[in-house]
């Protein structure tokens, strides 16, 4: 028997022809109703839960930390509240992140009012 003949080779050849660049070919035909149903199912699929680093988590919580400080909490009491929830964040880090947040907010407000600050010269 030659290399190209025989039952083993024919099965291998069929398997080979049913793949395109390493992927199996799908001969199924899709109707608009099929695709509509798939589309709805995909839209209803929740996003995966993304893990965050501690720095990312603090940045996400900064708006609420600012509100806590505005209500009279100290930076130390905010750090204690976070620690009670399993987040060991130093008061210094909280202070730095809140200051950076306030700076970004001030910068955004300035951009909203024309984007440039001008000085009046007499």
Q: What does this entry look like structurally?
A:
This protein has 122 residues and is mainly alpha-helical. It has a domain of 59 residues. It has a two-stranded antiparallel sheet with strand order 1-2. Helix 3 crosses helix 5 and helix 4 crosses helix 5. The longest helix has 22 residues. It is elongated. 4% of the residues are buried.
Could you give the order of the helices and strands? Answer: HEEHHHH
Strand percentage: under 5%
Q: How big is the Rg? A: 30 Å
Strand elements, count: 2
Largest sheet: 2 strands, antiparallel
Number of helices: 5
Overall 3D geometry?
elongated
Overall mean pLDDT score? 80
Order of strands in the sheet with most strands: 1-2
DSSP helix fraction = 55-70%
Model regions low in confidence, pLDDT < 50 over at least 5 residues: 10-16
Structure class: mainly alpha
Question: What's the N-to-C terminus distance?
Answer: 103 Å
Would you spell out the secondary-structure blueprint of this structure?
Blueprint: H1 7-17, E1 19-20, E2 23-24, H2 32-44, H3 54-70, H4 75-84, H5 91-112
Antiparallel strand pairs: 1-2
Helix pairs in contact: 3-5, 4-5
């Amino acid at each position: 028997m030659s290399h190209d003949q025989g039952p083993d080779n024919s099965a291998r050849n069929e398997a080979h022809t049913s793949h395109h660049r390493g992927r199996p070919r799908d001969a199924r035909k899709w109707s608009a109703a099929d695709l509509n149903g798939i589309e709805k199912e995909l839209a209803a699929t929740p996003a995966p839960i993304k893990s965050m680093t501690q720095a990312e988590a603090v940045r996400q919580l900064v708006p609420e930390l600012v509100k806590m400080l505005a209500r009279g909490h100290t930076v130390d009491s905010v750090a204690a509240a976070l620690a009670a929830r399993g987040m060991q964040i130093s008061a210094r880090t909280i202070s730095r992140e809140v200051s950076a947040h306030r700076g970004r907010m001030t910068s955004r407000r300035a951009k909203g009012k024309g984007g440039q600050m001008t000085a009046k010269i007499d």
